[in-house]
Design goal:
By secondary structure, the chain is an alpha/beta fold. It has helices at about 30-45, 55-65, 85-100, 115-130, 190-195, 220-230, and strands at about 5-10, 25, 25-30, 45-50, 105-110, 135-140, 150-155, 160, 180-190, 205-210. Strands 4-1-5-9-6-10 form a six-stranded mixed β-sheet, with helices on both faces.
Amino acid sequence: MNLLITICARGGSKGIPGKNVRLVNGTPLIVYTVRHALEYAKKTGADVELSTDDDTIRNVAAKAGLTTDYARPAELSTDTAGKLETIQGAVLHAERKHGKRYDYVLDLDVTSPLRTMEDLDKAFRMLDGNPAARNLFSVSFPKHNPYFDMVEEKEDGFVDLVKKPATQMVARQQGPRVYEVNASFYFYRRSFFDEHPLIIIKNTLAYFTPHMCFELDEMIDYSFLEFLLSQGRLDFDFR
């Protein structure tokens, strides 16, 4: 089984400057994901490819043990560049460099680092064990349920539920089980990149993360994660 692990970290973030290398509990954020990638690569024999356009990110990753000769092209380094085409660029580079075609691709997101090797093992077995499945991503339970307390504005200016339940609900827990994508990791069959332009397709699986997991979108998220790490308040063993 040929597996490639990708880490995509673009420089020049406007929302949170330097977010990929910002210190969280004394460690640059990307280092947590580099450690996970290298540990899983050692366990599975995978190759690891870093996709970045930023020398600072490249140097921080190198100090953590991950070097790369791949320079992300300018067209994949803009605010509008898609994640899938960015991953595909790294995949094609790695295949040329190593002279092989991968069977699976695992993308680890820098800004959602709360994951374990057990998560990755179980998620991969889900995808590998279902021949019809093309890809898989990690999810968590949301705070709100679109069948109960999430609304959208209609053309007449009034709001209504995003999803209509089959029967009347008086509690969020009564609705169909829904998840939110926590962006921690994504598994793909290699052939996915030859077939599909979207992450969510008909044959997509979801791996429920049985512990705390969230994406760092705003500065408050970084502060919250730093508090959890520094105070040992996570609900699982995180390294």
